[in-house]
Amino acid sequence: MSEAVTAPAYRIIPIIPVLKPGAMEGSGPYVANDKIQGALGFPGELVDDWHDQAIAKMGELLGKYRSLKVYMDSCVHCGACSDKCHYFIGTQDPKNMPVARQDLMRSVYRRYFTLPGKIFPKLVGARDLTREVLDEWHNYFHQCSDCRRCSVFCPYGIDTAEVTMAAREILDSVGYGQKYSNEIIGKVHKIGNNLGLPGPALRDTLEGLEEDVKEDTGIDVRFPIDVKGAEVLFITPSADFFAEPHIDSLIGYAKVFHATGTSWTLSSMSSEAANFGMFIGNYEQLRTIAMRIREVALELGVKRIVVGECGHAWRVAYSFWNTLTGVGDGADPNDRFAMMLQKQLDHRYKQPMHVCEYTWDMIEQGALSFDKEANDKHIITFHDSCNVARGSSMGGYPGGQFDIPRNIIKAVANNFVEMSPSTTHERTFCCGGGGGLLTDDLLDLRVKGALPRMEVLQQVADEHGVNFMACICAICKAQFTKVMPIYGFDRRMIGGVHQLVSNAIKLGAK
Ligand code: SF4
Ligand code: SF4
């Protein structure tokens, strides 16, 4: 499929794209089959009375999530969000303007849930939910990566990602789900990770890594798994176990734990930080996936939970684990197991903690030493991953999620360059593969969605010789590895922050 996909031409000055109506109307993900749907408790195929069920589900969500109702009612169509979406910039399809994406649902909302829409539908832009509209939802709500960039620019704070998640939940409820995300969620339920990597294979991989690191450094760096009584339970995206460049960050985490003398463990039962329940907007799936982590934490008796480099996983851990599972402040006092976990965890430490917080804390305490010259071949920039930038924090202060990864990079490397400020920090662009879109059936969309980040990367490559873009997200790593060559970059230009840590850390120095 990649041969047929070409990168859009860079724009000389970033400008509002020329409109290409209908450019992406045929672009949709594969529909989940009955087996995939059934494993998640969703109808196996589009149900006969899908219209009534979809409207009923919409009513349920409007009642359950006040924000959704507010978003449906409060848009003034000012247009401030319209050119802020990477998918609109890359595809030029006006339906990929965030406001237009919201209107796909808002028009149906008006028809069935507002008086003017019931009486004068045409006057207020209200539409019946027809099969054509449902198909449009399936396609265009899978051209949004839930990245929330548009909401930063909206004077009312309308969050298109929440609208997208609600639409996907409605689609699942009538048997019209997306193959990629739902299949992955099924694998987590059955095996414990997105890849369907069973425990013995995981153990083999980790043993192989121990041998590789020993050969490379001469030091016995361990990758422990299922260790009862370990202090730290480490939860990381399963891509870290085998994919390039992800695995280099896994080696980096292990070296940090080794150098700080921390007892830590991975888990075969909960070998996945990712939680695609968020992408499909389904609370039950979100909770069931997260619950595996609590079960393992209780079983192993760990004192701390640390999360590896993954954008949406950190958003789920930071923003939702407390109420979902009882990890962190805000656990439900009526939930016996949440209270058990609260008692077990060591509250002198942040719970949960991001691995960047852990490493930066150790650096600040002087517990780690680095040979910064080991990274001298790299001129490094940093891509803020959208879910970390706009859905979480680090270090216990606003903006910590921007400072801490950069602080680490500067502590382990000599050459760091920022990209244009209009595309970093809270204004960062999504990589183009987030939100459940990292699938080859959407490769054309992914390539086009990467355009704004590729343009700015090209700028710093031309002006400063940047040859390495660090990030802290498994999806960004996988997406950029795939699309960068299409834009003429070397796929090895993308890597993790802990990959840089791994290059420079002095093992056994302290
Ligand atoms: S992809 Fe991001 S910027 Fe585009 S509509 Fe969705 S949330 Fe908004
Ligand atoms: S910026 Fe907000 S109010 Fe303005 S069009 Fe976009 S969603 Fe509507």
List the ligand species: iron/sulfur cluster
Structural class: mainly alpha
Main pleated sheet: 4 strands, parallel
Q: Which oligomeric state applies?
A: single chain
- In the sheet with the most strands, the strands line up as 2-1-3-4
Mean pLDDT: 95
**Low-pLDDT segments:** none
Q: Note the total helix count.
A: 22
Give the termini separation: 50 Å
Number of separate strands: 7
Radius of gyration: 23 Å
Helix content: 40-55%
| Overall geometric form | globular
Task: Write the H/E string, N to C.
Answer: HHHHHHHHHHHEHEHEHHEHEHHHHEHEH
Strand content: under 5%
Describe this structure in words.
This protein is mostly helical and 510 residues long. The protein contains 22 helices and seven strands. The protein has helices at 34-39, 50-64, 66-74, 86-91, 98-113, 115-119, 131-140, 149-153, 160-173, 179-190, 199-217, 246-259, 283-300, 311-325, 336-344, 355-364, 386-391, 400-412, 443-449, 451-464, 474-483, 497-504; strands spanning 232-235, 264-265, 304-307, 353-354, 380-382, 468-471, 494-496. The chain has a four-stranded parallel beta sheet. A three-stranded parallel beta sheet has the order 5-6-7, with helices on both faces. α12 links the parallel β1 and β2. α2 (50-64) crosses α9, α12 (246-259) crosses α22 and α13 packs across α14. The model has no long low-confidence stretch (mean pLDDT 95). One iron/sulfur cluster (SF4) binds at residues 75-81, 98-99, 154, 156, 158.
